[in-house]
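re: ur question from yesterday

yeah so i grabbed the chain u mentioned. its 124 aa long if i counted rite. heres the sequnce exactly as i have it in my notes:
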Amino acid sequence: QVQLVESGGGSVQAGGSLRLSCSASGYTSYPSCLGWFRQAPGKGRERVATSPRFGMFIYTDSVKGRFTAYRDDAENTLYLEMNSLKAEDTAMYYCAVDFRAGFACNARSDYHYWGQGTQVTVSS
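ran it thru and got these structure tokens back, copy pasting raw so excuse formatting
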């Protein structure tokens, strides 16, 4: 079965950097959607960066210019490079994939498979 395992979270001071990894296994076909989402305490899960199959990642406005998502297809790993971190970036970060056709890959509902999450805490 499809398994996604995130790592790389931690506690940093504002202005610092972290790189999250998402190791994927259990599938042979290329996902139709790949994405990073986050959920802060008391808030809903929001999109951070998403990409359709072989497309470019699209970022939510609050992280543009600071976060970069990319994939290593040979390693079946998805990454999220986060720079200039702010206190408002504090959240549980999740990676997600889906294999169905016909979705824009922008919404949480477009994704069926999720990792367990990795916590990012930014102190100001």
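noticed a couple things. Residues 6 and 114 are 10 Å apart (CA to CA). also The two ends are 40 Å apart (CA to CA).
anyway ttyl
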